[in-house]
Amino acid sequence: MAAGRNDPCPCGSGIKYKKCCFAKERSPSDPASLLWRRLNAVDEELARELLRFALKSLGKDFLDRSSDEFFGTSSVPIDVSSPEMQGLGPWMLYCRTIPVKDWLRDGPAKRGTIASAYLQRHASRLDAFSRRYLEACVEEPFSFYEVEDVTPGQGLEMEDVLRGERRYVSERSASGMLRPRQLVWGHVISLESLHLFAGMGSIPLEPIDKLEIVHLLAWLRKRHRLVTTAVLRREDASVRGT
Fold it and tell me: Domain end: 139, 165, 191, which one?
């Protein structure tokens, strides 16, 4: 029987398989690594396309308007290469709801996101894989994730604190920086059994900060009883403001 990720490594080292031979056995050409690279390439290509679409359909000041809403102030300068764009960029493209009146052209018939409007108008431009990825980004809201375990250079075992779901997130750079019990505000999407960050806040939260998230969870449960994906999309402003 093949060893599970959390089982003792068959080599007899005494440590978990995922932190021993599992990492060594994963080559750059294995299916998971190939899929991870493909998803990241699609993410970068779609972000550029959606940004062009937004500039054309919403005007050049949509970046400033998005920044004002995201940070709650107009004093934060926009720099597309800044760490803050790790959170602002994906939220702006996939999660920010745009009023119908703001669209100059190619807008949806009702309030929607930049990505959902693009899918309505230009889905035929995308190959099937890119379309599924974009649909996953539109469907999934940002949430707070707590790091439970880390495999440096590979990924992180994480719990969605608000929905109570556990996922193994393939993330090479963040897995080298985050520690167990830290938390991140992130946009984790799932495609073909792989989970990865499509966006995250630039600053990790420490364990003491979890108290505020627990208070947010209690508030959400009081309003909705069950915290679902739809609830998190609807309460985006409250979650983001925590």
Answer: 139
64's tokens: 């400033």
Domain end, chosen from 83, 104, 139, is at: 139
User: How many CB atoms are located within 10 Å of the residue 191 CB?
Assistant: 18
Mean pLDDT, to the nearest integer, of 118-142?
93
Across 83-97, 135-149, 228-242, least confident range: 83-97
Q: What is the pTM of this model?
A: 0.82
Q: Which domain holds residue 77?
A: 32-139
The 3 state secondary structure assigned to the chain is CCCCCCCECCCCCCCEHHHCHHHHHCCCCCHHHHHHHHHHHHHHHHHHHHHHHHHHHHCCCHHHHHHHHHHCCCCCCCCCCCCCHHHHHHHHHHHCCECHHHCCCCCCCCCECHHHHHHHHHHHHCCHHHHHHHHHHHHCCCEEEEEEEEECCCEEEEEECCCCEEEEEECCCHHHCCCCCCEEEEEEEEECCEEEEEEECCCCECHHHHHHHHHHHHHHHHHHCCCCHHHHHHCHHHHHCC
Do 133 and 180 fall into the same domain?
A: no
d(CA 129, CA 135): 10
Q: pLDDT at position 77, please? A: 56
